[in-house]
What we know:
The protein has helices spanning 16-25, 55-67, and strands spanning 2-3, 12-13. By secondary structure, it is mainly alpha-helical. It folds into two domains: 1-29, no CATH class; 33-70, no CATH class. Strands 1-2 form a two-stranded parallel sheet. The longest helix is centred in the last third of the chain and has 13 residues, at 55-67.
Amino acid sequence: MVHGSNVSIGCLAMAAEAVEDAADTGLDNISVILSPVDSRSKELPEAIEVLPDWIPELYEIIEAELTQLI
């Protein structure tokens, strides 16, 4: 769930203004990228052995999506 306010318990919290902007734009016209860091300014954390094998591929997808925003 995405909602306004500055707290979150299991939700993606963002400022009310950002939620309103997204609603005004329309869900068909936006993309949401959830990433542990913004890899445009900081490297993504290295996959640790205890993480699933698909993490490196996921990081590649995230980086490719973020690269389009530059």
